Amino acid sequence: MRFPRWWRLSGVIAFMAMLAAPALPGAAGSRVLAHAQLIASSPGAGAIVAESPAELRLIFSEVLEAQVTSLDVVAQDGTSILRAAGEIDPEDPYALVVVAPKLADGIYSLTWRTLSTVDGHTAEGSFTFGVGAGQEAPPQAAGGGMTHTETDAIGVIGRWLTYLGLLLALGVAVFHRVVIREGFLPMRLIRLLAAGMAISAAATMAVAVASGLEAGSVPDYLLGTRNGGLQLARATVAALGAGVLLVAPARLSGLVAAASGLVGIILLIVSGHAAALPGPGPVIGGVVHVAGAAVWIGGLAGLMALILRPSLLTSQVRPLLRTYVPRFSALALVSIGLVGLTGVYSAWLQTGTLVTVETEFGRTLLMKSALAAGAFAMGGLNYLDGGRMLALLNGFRTRLTVESMAAIAVLVMTAALATTPPVEDVRGVAIQPIPDAFGEVTPGMSMEIMPGRPGVNRVVVTTTEAMAAAPAFELSLDRLDEGSTTRVPLTHVGMEGTDHSTMSMESEDGMVDWFADAVVLPAGSQWDTSVRILALDDTELSRQRFAFTLSDDGIDDGRITTLLNPAVAIALVLVLGGALGLGLGLGGMALPRCEALASRLALVGGGVTAVVLGLVIGLGQLTT
Ligand code: HEM
Questions:
Q1: Over the stretch 569-595, which tens digit does the pLDDT of each residue have?
Q2: Between these two residues, 528 and 486, which has the higher pLDDT value?
């Protein structure tokens, strides 16, 4: 059978995206920095401690899994001192601890490895430190010598197949109910959706087994780790959903498909990047994002079936698209609105900005958004067409095919996105500089504290390269609630000991990061700290003060907060737009070029979702 030109063209688009995905940065074999990153340690990287420390404590950016997470310590002569050692601190799930390591004087190389609870990826890194006066620790590798599981094509394709099964189960069930409105799902469609969910279950298990093999034991990973358990649950829900769908009475089939698709999506999001972020907003936003995408994609698949195999959906031999397109348009307008808003929200949460090409995640997200925008534009033409079969761009069929292929490509990009760490450099809590007597603060200097929770922290002071040429930097920590003062030298990557004249300074964008590691900040403590710039004879050239206090959860007073951030703006748009939609829907208003009943259902459903999500996000932003 010879396929028409537009069909071959759109097939090429989807195939190219499938081919491109594994070649995307971070998708196969390129080194991408870790999920559970080391952000502070005691002893610090490159530190010399006078005697064997009471404990080795490593603080990571994410909650740790007991499986895999451990450390090795090797002496300078290669003798192994500790192997696969360390326990996760029951009081602090971000901390890996070895109590009383009993180290003799000498230089030690510590290698750590973690398994992220967020997405089951492993990471590894190392640093050196010394015990005993007179020791000189060698310069530390940039980024703590960190390496990360190289995301593989199995991970990307497995996640993509997972999306297809789950999103189509939910989306096609909604499409059949709201657009077709003809009794129950036909048996052939039920079988197709069940097959999609079975493939989703198998793909999830394949990825889980691959992660388990990498973590050293599949059963331990599946039954003993958060991510393994969630993957197992997701595969079970998809497999059960497929099974129940095949045996359930036809009147329940739509509900079973929609419910198992939605539960599968929830389990997908709670095992994704959104789960690493505080509060319910990121996870609920992620679920709304993917459920909205499911309604849109389910509709594209439904319209495509009406053109190619109407019997899959309806008893009509020649269904009139002019009837169905205005119904689907109502669903599409509302779901795309929600997808766009929650997509921007997730982008900001994950990267701290809206658009960035600095990271692999940022570049992949940009490609995804561009493809999505292209698909939405094509959808816009189909919406204007309203099923009247205008000949624009080779007609409705071509436009719908291109839109569908672009949607498939968006999912491929998303699978690469979801398996790439969102940030390459974890940032800490930014602290407000205190103006001096003249109301001035030192331009080009900032301070962050990582992780900014009670316990061992790393203080990062960023200065301009010009400022960094000063002879020495020191951090003076005045503990106000105790009346004590500690002074620690600030060092930077490539610095030998405390003499930074031997430095090979590393700067990014003309800024240099200085570190003070192993700074213990107890809960309830109040600090007035100063970054002191010292002359060669240690006289003070200048100082910049930063003050902060710690509650039981972390830094509260003194942190830099930006009230009007994109998340608050999006929450406002969601609440106001949702309330408007709800009002219009309850008032019986139809969306332009859309059918009345579908409009009402879409406006009320979308309106309630938007208002609830907007309130959750807004309150979350106000209370963090
Ligand atoms: C304006 C366009 C969009 C933007 C800015 C956007 C952005 C995002 C972001 C930042 C994430 C989080 C990724 C992560 O956690 O790693 C995400 C997740 C997701 N997006 Fe989008 N998105 C957009 C459109 C779409 C569309 C059109 C679809 C469907 C065709 C889609 C499907 C998904 C899925 C399935 C996820 C979950 C990924 C996972 O955790 O596995 N997105 N999106």
A1: 999 999 999 999 999 999 999 999 999
A2: 528
Report whether 381 contacts 392 (CB < 8 A). Answer: yes
Name the residue ranges covered by the structural domains of the chain: 47-148, 151-424+563-623, 433-549
Q: For residue 297, which atom of ligand 1 is closest to its CA?
A: 30
Q: 564 C-alpha vs ligand 1 centroid, how far in Å? A: 24
What's CA 111's distance to the chain center, in Å? 26
Cα 343 to ligand 1 centre (Å): 6
Which of 336, 345, 368 for mutating ligand 1's site (highest number of atoms within 8 Å of CB)?
A: 368
Q: Of 201, 211, 219, 69, which Cα lies nearest the Cα of 151?
A: 211
Check pocket membership of 312 for ligand 1, CB cut-off 6 A.
no
**DSSP for 227-261, written as a single string:** HHHHHHHHHHHHHHHHHHHHHS-HHHHHHHHHHHH
Q: What is the mean pLDDT of residues 236-242?
A: 97
Indicate if 433-549 has the same CATH topology as 47-148: yes
State CA 161 to chain mean position distance: 20
602 touches ligand 1 (CB under 6 Å): no
Model pLDDT, residue 15: 53
CB of 277 shorter than 6 A to ligand 1: no
Q: How far is the CA of 335 from the centre of ligand 1 (A)?
A: 13
Q: What does CATH list as the number for 433-549? A: 2.60.40.10
Ligand 1 contact, 205 CB (< 6 A): no
**Mean pLDDT, rounded, for 210-219:** 88
Q: What is the pLDDT of residue 438?
A: 87
Q: How far is the C-alpha of 245 from the C-alpha of 252, rounded, in Å?
A: 8
Would the CB of 346 count as within 6 Å of ligand 1? yes
- For residue 171, is pLDDT > 70? yes
* 540 compared with 617, residue with greater pLDDT: 617
420 lines ligand 1 (CB under 6 A): no
- For 47-148, CATH gives 2.60.40.1220
CB 379 near ligand 1, within 6 Å? no
What pLDDT, on the 0 to 100 scale, is given for residue 68? Answer: 81
